[in-house]
Amino acid sequence: MRDGSARGCRSAFAGSWDVRGHQCRIAWLGSLRPPRPGPGRPMMTTALLPPSAPGGLPLLGHLPALARDPLGFFLGLRAHGPVVRIGLGTRVAYVLTEPELVRRVHVSEQHRFDKGGALIEKVRDYAGNGLATCPAADHAVQRPLMQPAFQRDRLVGYGTVVRDAIEEVTGEWTHGRVVDLSVEMHRLTTLVTSRTLVAADRGAPAAGRIAEGLPDITRGMYWRMVVPGKVFPRIPLQVNRRFDEQTARTRAAVDAVVEQYRADPADRGDLLSAVLAACEEDPDPRRAVYDQVITLLTAGVETAASAMTWTLRAVDGAPEVRDRIVEEAVGVLGGRVPAHADLASLGHAQRAVTEALRLRPPVWLVSRCATEDVDWPEGRIPAGADVFFSPYALHRDEAVFPEPEVFDPGRWAAERVTAAQRGGFFGFGAGRRKCIGDALAVNEVTAVVAAVLSRFRLVHREPGLATTTTRMLLMPSATWVRVERR
Q1: DSSP 8-state code for residue 300
Q2: What residues does 95 pair with on adjacent strands?
Q3: DSSP 306-358
Q4: Which residue numbers belong to the known binding site?
Q5: In 3D, which of 41, 1, 47 has the Cα closest to residue 24?
C-alpha cells in the first residue's frame, strides 16, 4: 500500500501518473491554465474555473504573501469566492472557503478526495504513513485496528496519567513564580503523552526525549510542505539542520523502545502496546509502528499544548468566563485535580476549550488531493490538484459564527449552539478521518484548564492572544505569567 501512495502526486510540475488507480494531473502555474483536454477529459472553460487570488508573482505565485502572513492570506480568500486558485511556486492549488464545501470533502464526497498530493508527500517523508497522513485505503485498515486504544475504558486509565502530570507540573508553581505558560504546557503534555504511549519505566525517558524534539520537527515539516521542489531541504539552513538532527534521533529512540517491548510483548495497557498489536500483520511492521508513534506524539504533545495555552490566554481576557469556570471547578473539585469522572460536571471549562479551538485551531491548514475531476457549481477542480482549507479561516465565517473574533464559550451551550455551528467546526476534522483522539484531547485540556484556574491566578504580562505560524501547527508565542495561589 505504502509504495502505491508514494508514487502519487509527487511532481511539482505538469504531468500525470497513477495513484491507487486514479490518474493524477497537475498544471503549470505560469499562466494559471487548466490541464489540456485529453481522452476522457472535457475542455474546462474559463467560465467554469474558480477565480485566481490576486497578487500572484511569476514563478513564485503566492508564496511571498503566504510567508508574510499565512493566516491573513487564507482568511482573505473568502472575498474571492467559495473556491479560489492560488499559486505555490509553479504549482496551482485550490482553496475552499465555505464550510459546506469542506463538509463535502470530509463526508458526502470524500471518495473524490484523498490524503496525497505533492505537499502531503513531503510530510510523509518524516511522518510516514500513519493515521494522519495515510491514503484512504490504508486508513480503512488502520483505523479499526487503532480504535480500541481510544475506547472509554482506556480513556479512564489515561485520565489518571493526566491527573498525575498536572500535579507534577503545577506542584512546582510556587506563589509569585513567573513561568512561560507555553513551555509549561508543553512539559505537561510531554509527560502525559510519553506515559500514555509508554507505560514501561525503561521506555518512558526515550518517549520524553522524542517529544522534546517535536518543535524543530514540526517547523521543518511546515516549510517542506509549502516550499515547492526538492531543493529546499538540502539548503543548509538552521531549520533544516535541526529537522534532520531531530528526525535521526527520533527514529533511533522509537526503534529502541519498540525493541524493549518486543522482548516482553505483554499488553501494558498503553498506546504503544495497542500500536504493536495493530501493526503486527503489516508487511513492514517496523516502519508501521514508527509511523503511528510519530502521529500520536505530534498530536498528543504539540496539539494539546497549543490548545491548553490558547485556552488559558483566551480565558484571561474574558473575566466573566474565567469567574464561571473557577466557581464551577471549585464547587466540583474542592481544590483537587479532576479525575475522569469529574469531567462531565465541568461544562464551562469544556465549552471554553471548544471556543478556544474555534479561534485558534492548532491544525490551521488541511490538504487533500482530488482523485478525479470535481465539477461543482462553485467551480471545477482537476484530478491531481492539491486542495486546501483552513479551519482558522472557516471558523471566522460570520454567517456561521456571529462576531467571530469574540471569545464566547456560551455559543456552544446546548440552548444556543446551531446545527450550522456544529457542522462548521473543524477543530478535529470531520467524517471518517476525524481525529481518533479527539475525546482524549478535550478531556486532557479541560482537566488542565479547570485545575489550573481553580488553584491559581495567572497574571499575564501581555494579556490577549498572540500568534506564531512558523510551524505546521498554530502555536502560541512565549506566554509569560506570574502564578499566584488562590
Answers
A1: I
A2: 84, 388
A3: HHHHHHHHHHHT-HHHHHHHHHHHHHHHTTSPPPGGGGGG-HHHHHHHHHHHH
A4: 435
A5: 41
CA quadruple 352, 358, 364, 368: dihedral positive or negative?
Answer: positive
pLDDT at 41: 45
Domains and CATH numbers, the chain: 2-127 (no CATH), 140-363+395-485 (1.10.630.10)
**233 or 163: whose pLDDT is higher?**
163
Q: What is the pTM of this model?
A: 0.84
Cell of 444: 486532557
The reported pLDDT for the residue numbered 124 is: 81
Annotated binding site for heme: 435
| CA pair distance 452, 329, nearest whole angstrom | 10
Q: Does residue 16 register a pLDDT over 60?
A: no
Is residue 229 within 8 A of residue 89, CB to CB? The reply is: yes
Answer whether 103's CB lies under 8 Å from 95's CB: no
Dump pLDDT digits (tens) for 381-398. Answer: 999 999 999 999 999 999
452 vs 474 pLDDT, higher one: 452
- pLDDT above 80: residue 39: no
Q: Which of 126, 29, 38 has its CA nearest to residue 86?
A: 29
